[in-house]
Amino acid sequence: MKCPKCSKEELVDSVLADDLAVKTCKACKGSWIASEDYQTWQAKQPQEKVTPEELGEKLNIEFGQSPLDTRAALCPECSRYLSRAKVKLKTPFFVDRCQQCSGIWCDYGEWDILAQLGLHRSIEQLFERKWQAQVEQQQLLNSERQAMVEKMGDKVAEQVFEIAEVLSQHPHGDFALAYLMRKVVSLQETQRR
Predict the structure, then answer these.
(1) Radius of gyration of the chain (CA)
(2) Phi, psi at residue 15, to the nearest 5°?
């Protein structure tokens, strides 16, 4: 079985954390995780999926992306192109998976990052469009909250977050929001005069 990224190197038997059997490339140090081995290992693990909210809090991990991460790869088992799922850290990387046999390729260091994020027990969720969309939405919300804190300061930002929560749950929250917008615009116009 050849390395999907190096193409010429033979994969050799190895083990990742918690006795997960893999095939590793001696040259690039990436790991091929056969679907059966992953499912057997996964069945012994706590069945906890990572929510987009939980993941959003952890994405500040620094990671040196493998130079081979940008390469397309063929499955070492069935020779089909591997599909890719993006893990959106500050320096993002891709996890590769075969749509035919469900084997997984992790470039060097990626498994460790997936473990830190809690995603190593449920890699399949990385390949779900709905989950990826939820992660992206959560990242936007986190960025928006951070911008609010930077512009308004901690105290005022916290008050804004609290009133936003109250208004979002009130049946007439839109009325209060319209009032606040008119009030702020009116005050700003008064200050300009």
Answers:
(1) 23
(2) -140, 135
